[in-house]
Every structure is written in C-alpha cells, then in structure tokens.
Amino acid sequence: MIKLKDLLVERIDYVDTANRLVKKYNLRSKVKITTGKNSGEYVAEKDLITLRSSYKSMKEFLLSILHEIKHALDANRLGVKKYLKKYDQAGTMAAHAGKDPHDDNKWEIQAEKWAINQYNKYFKTWE
Exposed/middle/buried for 83, CB within 10 Å: 0-12, 13-18, 19+? Predict the structure, then answer.
C-alpha cells in the first residue's frame, strides 16, 4: 500500500496533478499557480482554478483542489451567472446574520464537506 507521506519524497507537479483531477471530474477548468495566502480559488467567469505554489502536505493540496473542483462543478451545473448570483446571495445572508461572508457561506461549507468526502473516498488509504 502506498502511503501519502511516501509521495512527498519527490516534488509533486501541482499543475499536472490538478489538471488530471479536473479531467477526472469531466471539467475543462484551467489550473494556474499564483501567489497569495489563499489555498485556492475558483474564478467562475474564467473557469479558472488558482492554487498556491506550495502546501504543507499532499493532503492539504488535494483538499484544496477538490474544494475548487466542487465550485467548478456547481458553476458548470447551474451556469456561471446563476452560480455567482447564488454564491453572492449566500455571502450576503451570512453577513446579515453577523457571520463571515466567505467562511460561513453555504457554498463554501458544501465545497469543504464534498472535498473531505472525496478525499476520504479516494485518497485516505494512502495515509
């Protein structure tokens, strides 16, 4: 059995790995490495997933790309305009409730849960 920590011995090509995962979920989203403190971001208008250049662990990287893939799947399913409208509405509702418009946005919570589920389903055995 391959252990996740064994994979960290060699440098992982984040873009190649992310592109393969994007294709596995039947998406055409582009992947780009950027600078910044965010683990990742999905830019629906450009169908673009941005990632950092490094992560503390392979698990952190995989959870980040899976989280962004969920956003891309939602935008693909609903259409970009409708997805952005619903995402913005959820952020506004969270803010009106005195919560964080990003962290307490239901779309972010759903994407995180989905990413963890997918990770546990496909990658947990590597640990």
Answer: buried
- Evaluate whether 62 touches 123 at the Cβ level (below 8 Å): yes
Note whether 39 and 60 are within 8 A (CB).
yes
E strands within the chain?
Answer: 30-33, 40-43, 48-51
Confidence tier at 11 by pLDDT (50, 70, 90): low
Domains and CATH numbers, the chain: 4-126 (1.10.10)
Count of Cβ atoms closer than 10 Å to residue 105 Cβ: 21
Q: Is pTM, for the whole model, over 0.85?
A: yes
